[in-house]
Write a structure and sequence with these properties.
Length: about 475
Amino acid sequence: MTSPVKKLFGQTAIYGLSSILGRLLNYLLVPLYTAVFVDPSDYGVVSELYAWVAFLIVLLTFGMETAFFKFIQKEGQKEKTFATALISLLLVNGMFFIIIAVFHQDLARLLLFEHHGEYILLLGAIVAIDAISSLPLAKLRAEERAVRFSLIQFTSIGVNITLNLILMLGFVNPENPERGVLYILVANLLASLVKPILLFDSFRLKASYDRVLMKKMVRFSLPLAIAGFAGIINEMLDRILLKQMLYDPALPESLNYAEAQVGIYSASYKLAMLVTIFLQAYRYAAEPFFFNQMKNKQRSQVYVTVMNAFIGLVCCVFLLVSLNIDIFKHFIQNQTYWEGLKVVPILLLANVFLGIYYNQSIWYKLSGKTRFGALIAILGAILTIALNIIYIPKYGYMACAWATLFVYFFQMVLSYFLGQKHYPIPYNLKKFFLYLGITLGIFFLAHQIEFENQVLNFVYRNSMLVLLIIFLFFNEKRTVNSIDSE
């Protein structure tokens, strides 16, 4: 029989096909954006708008995906659970878009996008469509229809990239780059519409809305929604605060400087997102997988083995990018943005800690103690806000990077100790410190020894990465093979 761990990483590979290829293709838009937006302030506007998208998606899905996975196991009524959750999402997002349509001009002024109310209107439409589409996509994940899920996601990504290329290369006037921001949002809106069109069969509900079931799902998901919102604060608020805190209303020209700093930081953040790309693909497969292991007598061993393999993989991605930053930086075409490259290793390591925290977070979902997830995320959000407010005025976007690292490390440690108390999983701490220690040792050693010959430098650094991969592969192979599905 197939090992459940191999099955998980196999599904991660399938889910990752759309996520990883899509993100990599989106990486190709980074040189496009940084070339078209000669002034980083224009790219800063795009980055801030998408930070708001991330906030709103969490609010408007309010944990319904995880609640759906939980209650189809608990209630045994998949169609009724799906219909109840989907109708709720339709109602909430319909109301949200009506509010946006009425007040978009006022919101634009509040967010310092005066004279660009259309940005807010388009953003609201994108968020509402994506939030509604999230549940039919979750149903595909629950049914382990990874190929169809990936095809839909990849089609949407393909439409977005194609439209971006056509609009940005063919219609943007360098003297009026603000039109480029509008075109990016229009391309995203049309790409988002692809998902409900391809998922049309899922909107033919086979059961009715269940009010009692909805209350149960909301009680379960509300702490997760709070945790998710607080998590987005940790991930995205720095870009919003960076602009707001560097802008001085008494100096109108400071708005351009503030937006430029957001643009530089965001472009460099893109290079750190290779870890995030893997995390996204992994999470699509992992959440339903972990719930499906609840009846497996070997579940604790499975969770431990998955954690070990996961830490090894994200450590390799950390080294891949951080040791080859001189290559990856060319994704950013405009050298004006390169001053922000120093944040990349910090953010990469932060995302390693975030990935470990995601793995650990299954303890409060499986045990139903989701309030702890909310508590951890809220404490992290408070730290994020405090650290950024205190240090941005002095250190700019470097404060954002270090705050992200500190907060994700704090959440990882806090989640571990709470998990061991309320839902113990015997994680192998020796392997954690071994893998992380070797990784950081390679990173510092590689930067201590520099060769003038760039080819020799490349071979030297990446040979250490290859040796680490070989070590991890043979170290984990026996453990993974020892776990057979029930």
